[in-house]
Amino acid sequence: MVQPPKTLLCPDLKLFRKGKVREVYDFDDHLLMVATDQISAFDVVLPSLIPGKGAVLTQISNFWFERFKTQIKNHLVATEVKDFPQACQKYADILQGRAVFVKRTKMIEFESIVRGYLSGSGFKDYKKSGSVCGIKLPEGLVNASKLETPLFTPSTKAHEGHDMNISEADLKKQVDPALVDLVKEKSLYLYNQARDYAQTKGILIADTKFEFGLLGDEVILIDEILTPDSSRFWPAATYQPGTEPQSYDKQIIRNYLETLDWDKTYPGPELPQNVIEHSFGKYKEVFEKLTGRTL
């Protein structure tokens, strides 16, 4: 069971929602989204922090939002604390770099997952059925195989526990089919553009998830995008189909936890300092490779 810590970074602001690793504050038709340094694994928020994690993930996301802003509108209003409402200014030191002020939208209630490589739950599904989320794939694929065409494999959003994969056909029974088609088109476009760019920087984007919201009748991009927490990033130099790729995401932490005698329920174990430093080092590396900037 997920048990996020109860202390808030900005206790005087009106809380809209506290997630596993993020706090969202209510400003009527806007929201303040704050990425903490907390980390979750196996749906449990761990007691250890990854110092700087929230800021680096926010900066990666902001990089992509800026890159794609002419192709698709997004929810960003301000990324600098000086441009946030006055009530936020007392928390400037806490918020700097890890918070964004955004338009409040009506969330589209499914996650848009795009897979360009066969990995994770997709590979497990393939080994059992020869398909991924009901999409039949060629025989003979191995772990980390590049897919001929990226797959749109949505999932339903869960407020507790795991999101659930759903076929596109079944999703269209629950959500306006025209909306599903539009989100699919936008998601595949964004993935293809990001994949091609990242590859020039020596990074493979194996899969990722996007979230969209409705601003009036307009579909816009929300939440975070193309970070190591919402995507699988692999170094291109060591990529080898049929093996478990090295990773820029929190797989480092999952791998460590798998060595422990822990039943994956709350409370989670403390992380050793070397795992914390290694994890942050990978977040920092992917930021600097993608953006060409020093953190």
From TrEMBL:
It catalyses: 5-amino-1-(5-phospho-D-ribosyl)imidazole-4-carboxylate + L-aspartate + ATP = (2S)-2-[5-amino-1-(5-phospho-beta-D-ribosyl)imidazole-4-carboxamido]succinate + ADP + phosphate + 2 H(+). PROSITE patterns: SAICAR_SYNTHETASE_2. Keywords: ATP-binding, Ligase, Nucleotide-binding, Purine biosynthesis. It holds the Pfam family SAICAR_synt. SUPFAM superfamilies: SAICAR synthase-like. InterPro entries: SAICAR_synt/ADE2_N (IPR028923), SAICAR_synth (IPR001636), SAICAR_synthetase_CS (IPR018236). Coiled coil: none annotated. It is an enzyme of class 6 (ligase). GO terms for biological process: 'de novo' IMP biosynthetic process. Pathway: Purine metabolism; IMP biosynthesis via de novo pathway; 5-amino-1-(5-phospho-D-ribosyl)imidazole-4-carboxamide from 5-amino-1-(5-phospho-D-ribosyl)imidazole-4-carboxylate: step 1/2. Gene3D superfamilies: ATP-grasp fold, B domain (3.30.470.20), Phosphorylase Kinase, domain 1 (3.30.200.20). Residues 16-265 form the SAICAR synthetase/ADE2 N-terminal domain. Its EC number is 6.3.2.6. One of its GO terms (molecular function) is phosphoribosylaminoimidazolesuccinocarboxamide synthase activity. GO terms for cellular component: cytoplasm. The keyword Ligase applies. The keyword NADP does not apply. Belongs to the SAICAR synthetase family. This is Phosphoribosylaminoimidazole-succinocarboxamide synthase. It comes from Candidatus Lambdaproteobacteria bacterium RIFOXYD2_FULL_56_26. The lineage of its organism: Bacteria, Pseudomonadati, Pseudomonadota, Candidatus Lambdaproteobacteria. The gene is purC.
